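PROTOCOL LOG
Step 1. Enter all chains and additional molecules of the complex.
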Amino acid sequence: MATTSHAPDAPTAAAQPPGPATPRATRRRGEALTRAIYQATLNELARTSFEELSFDKIAPLAGTGKSALYRRWATPEELVIAALTDPSTGFGDPVAPDTGSLRGDLIALLGRFAGVLDEPRGRALRPLLTQRARHPEVFEEVRRLVILPNQRILLAVLQAAADRGEAAPQCVTPRVASVGPRLIMAEFLEKGTVGRADVQSIVDEVLMPLTAPRPDTGRSDAPADAGDGARAT
Amino acid sequence: MATTSHAPDAPTAAAQPPGPATPRATRRRGEALTRAIYQATLNELARTSFEELSFDKIAPLAGTGKSALYRRWATPEELVIAALTDPSTGFGDPVAPDTGSLRGDLIALLGRFAGVLDEPRGRALRPLLTQRARHPEVFEEVRRLVILPNQRILLAVLQAAADRGEAAPQCVTPRVASVGPRLIMAEFLEKGTVGRADVQSIVDEVLMPLTAPRPDTGRSDAPADAGDGARAT
DNA sequence: CACGATAGTGAACAGACTTGTCCCTTATTT
DNA sequence: AAATAAGGGACAAGTCTGTTCACTATCGTG
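Step 2. Run joint prediction.
Step 3. Record the structure below.
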């Protein structure tokens, strides 16, 4: 049994979140341990996939034993939801930007979103995005914590811009509000990261033209009926 | 596993393309068998995830033995790439629409894309989208077979529309061309399916306003330098 | 300050499942 | 009929899962 783990001299390794089994001087409990487990969970999720998660792998990564995990959660799914929901490791309520201009707000909001995606919690989202059908509860949590808040804020930003005359009133819709975040997400999936230049490009090449006040060209909206002309073959 | 694996009564009498081990009168070989394996692979991929794929599971789904698979491919990864590449089960070159109008072209192209996503081969894409980092070769194939062709055609559609005066010339860019497909993909991931109404909404609420000829408002493009105004906190 | 309650650590374990390979039988092709 | 390859089962080695246990650091209380 167990060479004692109470090495009295190891003050150096004070507190690194993702330590792969570093012998610790202090034994964590309660909240501190829980948060370390959340971190390890998100890191592992970011590295691999939801299906491969297991208490078996997470425990050593968090520098603890499986028992501590089984005492808290019944399944990896529960653990993931908890990790996502916890404000300190997962997602809290994002704040609305207020730079005074539509372009400033968009770049601030989308830039922050892109930044979050580069953190462990953001990279942990990636494997979850394709799990809608198999793990509705997990996906619903992603939706509730990430997708919907962004959409809500974006809609408010658009409304404010429309009120200032900076944006066309008819672009204040959920569909238009979804464009920015979705383009960021797509860029993230395709390239692995979203740089500042990408954010600017999305804002300047897509969102600004899309929301620009319309000098009433007769074509901008849906042509009433018009057969949809789909000629797929 | 005492229960015989060739249960003569498939549950719910599934049709034969994805038949879960229906006893066959005829023994397939060569191309026919290969294609059946591709189908089973894509079906299973659509149902679960890339990580969970294994010859062990695919073989019975294709109604054959593991030997037939190991004789053809060394790893599930190779098999997936082959299944995606095969024109009869995977993706060939998509055709460019030519309806005469920008809106018609967009709805035709994106509608067809949405349709493909509802097929097995399309649903099989979903788990692959998050595998860029772990399986670059598979993702590269997705890119080559699905993402890039769509982008290429869309760019051509935009160019043609610009030539006709239907679209602003400055919107003929890869970034703008990426918007449609990416919104379709995002809708697909978030809702599980993309209906005709979604396609129309994307075209009419986003793409048409975005590409509308610009009567030269002084603001549509990037403001030269202008600090990016990001005030993320 | 010391004691007892609580909870973390680390390991072991049995059972289930997975993996790649091998081999024998049988259908199909030449 | 001979050659080829499919069908399908069996195998050993390895992996993963959830439990349980002995041990000990930490905390709260008296």
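Step 4. Note key features.
Residues 1-22, 218-233 of chain A have pLDDT under 50 and may be disordered.
The two ends of chain A are 70 Å apart (CA to CA).
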